[in-house]
Amino acid sequence: MQRLPSPRGLMGMEATSHSRGTRALILVIAPLFVTLAACGEVRTPGTGGSTDGTVKATSTDSVRGSAPVTGEQRTTLPSAPAPKAFADRATVVAETFRASGRPVAPVGLVLISPWADVAFETDAQKAAWLAGKVEFGAGVPDDQVGVSQMTLPDGSERPVDLLGPRESVARALQVGGDCSGVAADECRLTLTKATLTTTRVKTNAGEATVPAWSLAVDGMTRPIVVVATAPGPLDRPAAPQPLAGLPQRPAGFSPADSLDSVSGATITVGIGHGACDRDLTGHAVEFDDLVVVGATHTPPEPGTMCTMQYLLAPSTLQLTEPLGDRVVLDVVSGKTLVLGVPPM
Q1: How far is CA 102 from the centre of its chain?
Q2: 100-109, 187-196, 218-227, 231-240: least confidently modelled range
Q3: What pLDDT shows up at residue 290?
Q4: CA dihedral for 224, 225, 231, 235, sign (positive or negative)
Q5: H or E stretch including 86?
Q6: DSSP state of 331
């Protein structure tokens, strides 16, 4: 199965039955300097890769800086051999994971894109969608289901059952907002017509083409496109659960919230951190059956004024051997990280 890096944040869908307006995306990309360094075992620093299945701390070296990493910089974090405290924590995580019965990571296709592609043209339209203020006109049938085809990332096809347009919209709505600041008569979306089409979506295995409903909306120039596949062949990832029984994390540890890419023995993870965390450095500790990843940092000095932000920054880690089918665990929570599934 092809495994692709996943952009951080929401990834949109592209409907194949209508033209798309131009969207501007401004990226601020800091220069990336990564130099591969030698790998060493935690128990015997400075030696090569282990051949006996013992714990191995591996990393890449990179240009270091003491300044905090901000969300705007999106700088790739440096990495280094795991310090003893990190390696000790990794061993505890590994032992707890094995004792828990080794929870199984999800298999099959996992949808990374949202269920709906919506291009809001006004704040009122966005508020209405987030508040679930959606009405259906006569052109949107109550129940229209059937069987269609989806094209998998490897190019093969498989039959899929369909949801009707109203049920598809209900699944896509993520009600969590309200109409504050928007007039009641404006905080409403009226769907006037539903047309079956296809759309391209991002999955943990690459891009797939799936059946979708193209929904005309009163007052919007572009339709809303919602995935129409019934549950089963394509689902949103379930939120990973922390590993029960882990002791509280030591101070100065940062979690790995996502596994963004895998290329042989090189993996990239998304590190969660605060705006004032300093000296952020990624680490990986390898075992025969799993890899524990995360970062260490220097907490801000007491009394430091800091914004209440939770940020993500990538860190590229070099293992002593290809990742293969080994499970990747977060050093802080013990959560299983699945390739391509964004932080939740």
Answers
A1: 22
A2: 100-109
A3: 95
A4: negative
A5: helix 84-99
A6: T
The pLDDT of residue 270 is 94
Identify the residue whose tokens are 């590229």.
316
Total count of residues recorded for the chain: 344
Domains of the chain: 34-106+239-337 (no CATH), 109-227 (2.40.128)
CA neighbours within 13 Å on the CB side: how many for 199? Answer: 30
Question: Quick check: 59 and 291 in contact, CB under 8 A?
Answer: no
**pLDDT over 90 at 63, yes or no:** no
Banded model confidence at residue 27, pLDDT cuts 50, 70, 90: very low
Q: Count other C-beta atoms under 10 Å from residue 269's C-beta.
A: 29
Say how far apart CA 239 and CA 281 lie, in whole Å: 26
CA count, 13 A, side-chain hemisphere, 273: 33
The residue type of 176 is G
Output the DSSP codes for 179-220.
-TTS-TTTS-EEEEEEEEEEEEEEETTEEEEEEEEEEEETT-
Tokens found for residue 277: 């965390």
Per-residue model confidence (pLDDT) at position 107: 60
- For residue 212, what are its two tokens? 């979708």
Amino acid at 105: A
What is the structure's pLDDT at 79? Answer: 92
∠ CA 309-310-315, nearest 5°, is: 135
CA 209 to chain CA centroid, Å, is 20
pLDDT-based confidence at residue 116 (cuts at 50, 70, 90): very high
Burial 48-69 (b: 16+ CB within 10 A, else e): eebeeeebbbbbbbbeeeeebb
Smallest Cα–Cα separation from 81: which of 322, 325, 318, 328?
318
